[in-house]
Write a structure and sequence with these properties.
Helices cover 43% and strands 11% of the residues. A four-stranded antiparallel beta sheet has the order 1-2-4-3, sandwiched between helices. The longest helix has 24 residues. The mean pLDDT is 91.
Length: 257
């Protein structure tokens, strides 16, 4: 099998790492891969903050509610970044109000996610492991303040990596037939029936992974996640707007504007 495909098909989230640094040359190769990531209309509307200060790392761990982040050898925060291009336009005498609209914001979102996934592919191809950290959004305003982010930026995703000191079981995925449609959406007549075998597989996975803990299923997890109450995450768009992005929410409610 193609070695790149082999690494991708065996992706595991690694949360615990050996106590040794990632060599500078390997970091630079990962940075080069990030920099060569595909980007929407060539604007490269993202930036990366490498966290090397242990105090800042500890504060991020606290904000995310995940203590293991403190011990990650490498930690990067991927940032939606429209500030840089806005400064370029202003310096050329062409400030553009479109630089702050929803389209530009989501271009930065796409660029950031693509760059993070590209980084993970590179990390795993070199025998390292990592974990994506969506939990940094549990308190986005506090993270904006902690990282002293300028306007027209937004912290989207964390990525911690290093040499694995953990080899978790490969987490099952639902059949791709439930996700793949041809020319239209892949509707199912009965989702619980379609997911029954996957539920059983996930129950076995959690039963063997977490000893002395109640087994769970995928469909139960769906309900739990929907019912989770994270008030600060519920205000994500307000934080995005406070960073200067015009998401057009008022215009959506008042089409005459």
């Amino acid at each position: 099998m193609n070695p790149i495909l082999e690494h991708q098909l065996n992706h595991r989230t690694i949360r615990f790492f050996e106590d040794r640094p990632v060599p500078a040359n390997i970091r630079q190769e990962i940075f080069q891969v990030i920099n060569r990531t595909a980007t929407s209309v060539g604007l490269q509307a993202f930036s990366v903050i490498r966290i090397t200060d242990s105090d800042i790392k500890a504060q991020i761990a606290q904000l995310a509610g995940q203590d293991y982040i403190r011990k990650m050898p490498e930690l990067m925060i991927f940032i939606v970044d429209c500030y840089r291009n806005d400064q370029v336009a202003r310096a050329l005498g062409h400030p553009d109000p479109k630089a702050v609209n929803m389209d530009r914001f989501f271009q930065g979102v796409a660029d950031s996610y693509l760059a993070a996934q590209n980084a993970m592919n590179a990390i795993e191809s070199m025998g390292l492991g990592g974990a994506f950290l969506g939990s940094i959004l549990d308190n986005p305003q506090a993270l904006v303040d902690l990282l002293q982010l300028p306007p027209l930026t937004f912290p989207l995703l964390g990525l911690g990596f290093g040499y694995p000191d953990d080899q978790p079981e490969l987490k099952p995925r639902m059949p791709f037939s439930l996700k793949l449609g041809e020319n239209t959406y892949p509707y199912q007549k009965n989702y619980l029936l379609a997911l029954a075998d996957y539920d059983q597989e996930m129950t076995h996975y959690y039963d063997t992974r977490f000893k002395n803990r109640r087994s769970d299923s995928f469909t139960n997890q769906v309900v739990k996640q929907i019912e989770r109450n994270k008030p600060l995450r519920a205000r994500l768009l307000q934080v995005v707007e406070s960073q200067g992005f015009d998401l057009g929410l008022d215009k959506a409610n008042n089409p005459e504007n």
